[in-house]
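Fold this sequence, please.
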Amino acid sequence: MGRVAELAGVTVRTLHHYDRIGLVLPSARTAGGYRAYSAGDVARLREVLAYRQLGFGLREVAELVDDLSTDAVAHLRRLRGLLLERRDRADAMAAAIDRELEARAKGLKVTPEEQLEVLGARLYDAIGGAYTATRRTEPRIAAQILDALGDAQTVLNVGAGTGSYEPAGRDVTAVEPSAVMRGQRPAGSAPCVAAAAENLPFQDQSFDAAMAVSTVHHWGDPVAGLREMRRVARRVVVLTFDTDEPGWQDRFWLTRDYLPEFAAVLAGFPSLAGMADAIGARTEPVPVPWDCGDGLFEAYWRRPQAYLEDQVRRAVSVWTRVGPEAEQRAVRDLRDDLASGRWKERNSDLANLNAADLGLRLLVA
């Protein structure tokens, strides 16, 4: 026991406690009567200590390591995903601090939301509080996703957020790394696992289909996440964004005339063709209805006044990513153009459109 304690960086007292509560039981005794750990005991101890370092209580740890449906590989995938989430949380906090320092140096007002962003785990934690107010299932987009899912009965929803677009009547399992988003999932929604897309804690081909809706651009490694979806499911359906077409940012008046910084936000995002090739997918355009019920970034293309509302912007990650200076300038310029009639003059061709192709695409593999 002393040698194991030394190697693991814990005290003998800790190991005695784990033994006493049945969390890690040494399976053998030496000739002298000392507790001895087998390779399996050490593997379990490693899992226990890893979960403890991630902040799980002993009761939660016991439930995790005793989960008969999770093997050693699945535990490692889950642990790696949680560690990546912690890394991303630290990166997000550092980025938020940098943005606030930059804003303060320029004498810009820093909103309460931006101040609290420093405490956020991930980008979704920064926008999560406003998410349920404007982000919900749009039936026409949902119908296209449901058609792509086909007859799949077991469905994994990756980057599930608060549960929008999860198909009714199917056996759904959700994956969501943000505690803020998981906390807003309604009662009775699908069970939700805390994990990252790049390290899904499931065995190969565990699901009929895996879906991801407006989330791939938040992943640290989108292609790795898509390949993970392909690994755990026989069908993959992903709603994402096309940046392949030259001048793609000019498709939408908001990015063309008011928020050119949006192009930089997606500068490192993989091409649609590259993502499709990674999982052998075909692509489908997803038109955005003029009265889209899901308040995604492009939703208000025929209702420009909506972008002046702080609640609308707070539920869209783009505004957090471009920073307060760009956001305040875009809102100011849009407000002026709406008041002067310049916006209407520039975009008169939109008045009679019922839907617009603004670059949303469905990957179906």
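Confidence is low (pLDDT under 50) at residues 119-124, 126-130. Residues 152 and 208 are 5 Å apart (CA to CA).
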